[in-house]
Amino acid sequence: MPTAKPLPVNLSNDQIDEFGREMDAIYEETLASRGEKDRLYILRLIRTQRSMALGGRILIYLGLLFLPAFSHALASWGSALIVMTLGVVLLGIAKILENMEIAHNVLHAQWDWMKDPEIQSNTWEWDNMSPSDRWMHSHNVVHHTWTNVVGKDLDVGYGIMRVTPMQEWEPKFLMQPIWFVLLMLLFEEGVALHEQVIIDVVEGKKDSKELRPIMKHIGRKVWGQVRKDYIMWPLAAALMALPAAMFVSVSPISIFLLVAVANGVANIIRNVWAFIIIFCGHFPEGVYSFTPDQVEGESKGQWYLRQLLGSANIQGGPLFHVLSGNLSHQIEHHLFPDLCSNRYPELSPRIQALAARYGLPYNTASIWRQFGTTWRNNLRLALPGGKMPPKVATV
Amino acid sequence: MYTNNKNNENSWLNRLTTITDMFAFPLKTSHYVELVNPLWTTHKMQAQVVEVWDETKDSRTITLKAGANWRKHRAGQHVRVGISVDGRQYTRTYTISSPPERDDGCFTITVKVIDGGRISRHIVRNLKVGDYIPVGLPQGDFYLPDASPIQPLFITAGSGITPAMSMLRSLIAQQRLPDSVHIHFAPNEFDVIFARELRQMSIQQKYYHLHEVHTRDFGEDKQTKAYFNLDQLQRFCPDWKERDCYACGPASLLSSLEKVWGEAGLSNKLHIERFLAEFAEVPSDAVGGKVRFAKSGIEVEADSETNLLRIAEDAGMNPPHGCRMGICHTCNTKLKSGCVRDLRTGELLNEVGAIVQTCVCATAGDCELDL
Ligand code: FES
């Protein structure tokens, strides 16, 4: 079925179909080759991640023993902060790994094929304020189905930003550089509130009654997260400091605050990193957006095409890819969202070659370029106007 | 699938973990305990392979050390184990072959390679000491009664010997082995699992009478000698009508036993353990239909013979399951509407709210399940 308004490429429908068949072939070949190696990868990763999280928390606690109050040879604010910072960074990285390379991909059902009851999309709960099932709806269903379709994909601007000239300018977008920074710092909270219903209620399209069960559900998850990072761990440290306070001048209250702040910083590290990687996946220069009538009656080939044009990769080494949850392979992820992420790196050159044969762009660049142009677009689009990406001239 | 929540006797421990779980949210304390020792976890149950021993050329006894929350089995019960082959996890059920009297927290399963069986082959050939595998709790009602002293007749074939072995070992350990007759079938004398122990028992235990029947000549591929029949039974165990018979083995053997005991009007004295559900014949006018999985919102066409578990899995779902042969009830779900057929009995289920074991039921017309 032809689309009402063609995609911005000079390919005939037959060519697009053939392109889709080639994509299917790559997908199926990779699916069939999954095996023990992949299982060991995810099991090891999970074990490593949990050890790091625990290690980070222990280091933060250890840092407390170097506070000047303990007046041993090594005690000083300097050494306390160094040890605590190490712990914070380790915990931050653990949270990044959990959210990105593990949970994001598990929740995409990438590991369901193993039938390991521990690693299933329908039971995994992630270390994030957003409950897994809500996120799976807004992300897997809404975003992945309607990738970059203005008005359908909630991720286009997250309801507060103008990320493509196809969105009409409104005065509220003048604020968007501020939203950009705030969202970066509070990304986790933003994701938790990333719900169509909330927008509908705010815009008065729905009654606030419809919001209540969802907010309750989200609230329970948020409470669990807050309790862990900002109550339990700090409280346990403060309780341990209580007896010490009889002999040295440590205040359990400041111990509580130190640990709470440390955990908060770890959360912010994760937020900023996730934000950067995710924004680089859809909003740098050269990424296409679409109108709802362009996707009407879309064929599989056209769907692949839209995913390719609507996503962008980030270049980097293997460690960088793991830390970005392989969302540095955003293109491969959008083409094959339920394929184990550890396979994206090997697919990348094949997809790139395929795109080249059809004369299609394959948007990949360093993180500096991708994030730089994302920022530039953000500033430019705060004002009216803006330039659309050019139509793709194909071979 | 392997979780277990029986912990009531340790309620202080429960209360403690409710608090420590807050530190681990959204995980559980047990997920971190697993990093230290996988046998201490409580969110799932695992066992570690501590010894492997070849019984015959194609069967192996695996000694497993069970983790936290394990409970002692009764001789004759079976256990589910999870095995990963090529990255995919499969669940199979095996009888525990060790007696419950063993008190080092270990138990054994004895596995024979089934022709063309990928999982049994993997267990026998690839499982090695140190591996951890998920296990379930012991289950099943094929065990000797505690109280009433009975005179057992064991009829076993091939790896069907495992529950009888556990029972015999248990009775001997308790020093209360009654007068027992054991007829065991195996292709030839080198294929007898536990051969040495059995033969030794028959020398040392004056109440234990073993009759081995080897159905092939050595080196032959085909069965050359008689399998089970009534004459043979009369010969080995003239008082078989007075005894309680415990039998385990291939379906063909079990159905001939059922016939003999049935004709003698003694069906209640025959206790059988099956390892493959035997299916009733699907009537020729049976129809398939649309299966709707209510929670997943998936609807697919199904025929009248394929079990609903398979249908769901082929539709990309991963519903809970264990044994896949109708014994563990892990796969239970509710019928929301329509009609399904129990493939074992041919019985139709059509009451709303009826419990459906998806692994042994197929659709009979349209149906909707709570999955
Ligand atoms: S899976 Fe065990 S009864 Fe169905």
UniProtKB/TrEMBL annotation, chain A:
**Any one of the GO CC terms:** membrane
Sorted alphabetically, the Gene Ontology BP terms of this entry are: lipid metabolic process
Q: Which UniProt keywords apply?
A: Membrane, Transmembrane, Transmembrane helix
InterPro entries attached to this UniProt entry: FA_desaturase_dom, Fatty_acid_desaturase
Residues of the Fatty acid desaturase domain: 84-364
Membrane-traversing stretches: 54-71, 77-97, 230-249, 255-280
GO terms assigned for molecular function: oxidoreductase activity, acting on paired donors, with oxidation of a pair of donors resulting in the reduction of molecular oxygen to two molecules of water
Name-wise, this protein is Acyl-CoA desaturase
Q: Which organism is it from?
A: Ketobacter alkanivorans
